[in-house]
């Protein structure tokens, strides 16, 4: 079926199968492999992308469900000149990843969190991020990165 939607600020027109997931469309058709797939049952958060600004598991969302909606993947987060988004930079500065497999989903979930709540407490962060699993870091550096990103974004007035 035909499908058009906004992807990382650009209009996309493509086709998808009725059973095709958004993750499959992004990775296999559109070559956006920054979106990772692990559990495929909406448990780990590795496949998180934003749809109309809210985090969704692209492993279980059917591709056609994003028709006429706005999708943001990790590839769309950096500035047009290549400058990393403050959340991306904060994850680097706080060494908030090891294998990196959870990182794109973590960063996009963080963006949704900070768009909704620019000054989250540690409890707010822990609660909001509980759908994103990291097998490597023990979460402490991730929480620090989110706090650093919140501070930077507040100082820079950025979204
Ligand atoms: S791969 Fe989608 S939630 Fe785990
Ligand atoms: S950095 Fe390896 S799963 Fe999070």
Order of helices and strands: EEHEEEHHHH
Q: Identify every distinct bound molecule in the structure, by name, code or SMILES.
A: FE2/S2 (inorganic) cluster
What's the CATH class label of the largest domain?
Alpha Beta
Q: What Rg is obtained from the alpha carbons, in whole angstroms?
A: 15 Å
Q: Assign an overall shape.
A: globular
* Weakly predicted, low-confidence segments: none
Overall number of structural domains: 2
Question: Main beta sheet, described?
Answer: 5 strands, mixed
CATH T-level fold name of the largest domain: Ubiquitin-like (UB roll)
- Helix fraction bin: 25-40%
The total of helices stands at 5
Please identify, by name, the CATH architecture of the largest domain: Roll
User: Superfamily at the CATH H level of the largest domain?
Assistant: Beta-grasp domain
Keywords:
single chain; 5 helices; DNA polymerase, domain 1; 5-stranded mixed sheet; 5 strands; 2 domains; binds FE2/S2 (inorganic) cluster; Ubiquitin-like (UB roll); globular; alpha+beta; 159 residues; 34% helix
What does this structure look like?
The protein has helices at residues 22-29, 86-93, 103-116, 122-128, 140-156; strands at residues 2-7, 10-15, 48-51, 54-57, 70-72. The protein folds into 2 domains: 2-75, Roll (Ubiquitin-like (UB roll)), CATH 3.10.20; 86-156, DNA polymerase, domain 1 (Orthogonal Bundle), CATH 1.10.150.120. It is globular and about 45 Å long. A hairpin with a 2-residue loop joins β3 (48-51) and β4. Helices cover 34% and strands 14% of the residues. It is α+β, with helices and mostly antiparallel strands and 159 residues long. The termini are far apart. Strands 2-1-5-3-4 form a 5-stranded mixed beta sheet, covered by helices on one side. The site of one FE2/S2 (inorganic) cluster has 12 residues, from loops. One FE2/S2 (inorganic) cluster is lined by residues 97-102, 134-137.
């Amino acid at each position: 079926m035909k499908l058009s939607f906004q992807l990382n600020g650009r209009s996309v027109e493509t086709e998808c199968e009725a059973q095709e997931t958004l993750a499959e469309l992004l990775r296999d058709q559109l070559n956006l492999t920054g979106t990772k797939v692990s559990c495929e049952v909406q448990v780990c958060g590795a496949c998180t992308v934003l749809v109309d600004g809210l985090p969704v598991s692209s492993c279980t969302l059917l591709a056609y469900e994003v028709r006429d909606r706005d999708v943001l993947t990790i590839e769309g987060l950096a500035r047009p000149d290549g400058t990393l988004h403050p959340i991306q930079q904060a994850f680097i500065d706080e060494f908030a990843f090891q294998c990196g497999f959870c990182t794109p989903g973590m960063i996009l979930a963080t963006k949704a969190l900070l768009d909704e709540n620019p000054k989250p407490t540690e409890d707010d962060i822990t609660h909001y991020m509980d759908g994103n699993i990291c097998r490597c870091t023990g979460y402490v550096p991730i929480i620090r990165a989110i706090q650093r990103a919140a501070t930077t974004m507040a100082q820079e007035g950025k979204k």
